[in-house]
Amino acid sequence: MAGVYISYPFCAQKCTYCNFASDVLPRELEAKYVDVLKAELHAAQWPWKPETMYFGGGTPSQMEPEALRALLSEIPGSPWVEATLEVAPGGLTSAKAEAWRSAGINRVSLGVQSFAPRELARTGRKHTAEIVEREIAILRTSGIDNFNLDLIAGLPGQTAETWKLSLDWVERLDAPHVSVYMLEVDEDSRLGAEILAFGKRYGASDVPSDDQIADFYQTAVDRLARAGIARYEISNFARPGFESRHNLKYWKREPYLGFGADAHSFDGQWRWRNPENAWDYVQRPEILDRTAADPVGERFFLGLRLDEGIDAPPFTETVAQFCRDGLLETDGRRLRLTNRGVLLSNEVFAAFV
């Protein structure tokens, strides 16, 4: 199933935990970016008709509906099997939701991250649980009942009680899809850089321990499973039939074209990307780092992310050692991560890169 990814790296505010190539940027750059992005889409050679579309960011939901519609009109294949728009809670209206639906959007991913007020305040998010509840009702009324809720395990000040509160809200809202990400600590986010510097800003000194974060994650796995929302990929959980068709292509090595800043593409044989930030993209929207794909290595570090695992390969010493260590398991037909292996997946993947 071929797809399209569109990057829109503009936000109303930069969240402390965010390590994406998005930011609060000048309005004049945003206007120029839309023009360049539309030109890139218009000039594209389509080797296949896309079946899925994912519009991420950043906060593409802050675009004017007509500008969004103009960009989507450049993509063949509408109505797509699945067309996702990333949305920051707050400011959603019935008019916006209906305009999205009219433009072809049939799935929304809400960057909730937490339902606990103090956790939200410390990360820079400005919504509340009640706002999310109201906006989901708007989506459903507009005909968009396929939505995802993002949660982060490991936010500053998070406790077992506040994590339970967030999971309670997920059940209350009857979410068909949930993404649970364990906090990433690296220098590309303000919070991550502060943690690495042993500082205190952004609640860095109040981040849960690795063991606590692992417990939060496992609690989510168990709670969501009991609610009928099964894990199908390390960070993704869905009710039957609501798995993200677009994101599955990344892990199954299916083709997709990326447009906009830091967007990546894959045609089955080659991988390439666009310039990383909006400034560079607007000045020279060119293809960078075109490299041959590695089907053997990618099969392990992409396919093993899925709960279904991969077809069992020849039993190498590396695979055998991970099985002895309890990180991988096989029934002779499929090879997959164990529950412990999921928590240490980066260690497993590194062996196959």
Give the structure's gist in a few sentences.
The protein is of the alpha/beta class.
Describe this structure in words.
By secondary structure, this protein is α/β, with parallel strands linked by helices. The protein has two domains: 248 residues, Alpha-Beta Barrel (TIM Barrel); 60 residues, Arc Repressor Mutant, subunit A (Orthogonal Bundle). The strands form three sheets. The protein has a nine-stranded mixed sheet with strand order 7-8-6-5-4-3-2-1-9, with helices on both faces. α2 runs parallel beside α3 and α3 packs across α5. It is globular and about 55 Å long. The mean pLDDT is 92.
State Rg: 20 Å
Helix content: 25-40%
> For the record, what CATH class of the largest domain applies?
Alpha Beta
Strand order of the largest sheet: 7-8-6-5-4-3-2-1-9
SSE topology:
Blueprint lengths: L2 E6 L18 H17 L8 E6 L7 H8 L9 E6 L6 H10 L3 E7 L3 H7 L5 H14 L4 E7 L6 H13 L4 E6 L7 H7 L13 H17 L3 E4 L2 E3 L6 H7 L4 E4 L4 E3 L3 E4 L4 H6 L4 E5 L2 H7 L8 E2 L5 H8 L3 E3 L3 E4 L1 H5 L1 H6 L3
Parallel strand pairs: 1-2, 1-9, 2-3, 3-4, 4-5, 5-6
Antiparallel strand pairs: 6-8, 7-8, 10-11, 11-12, 13-15, 14-15
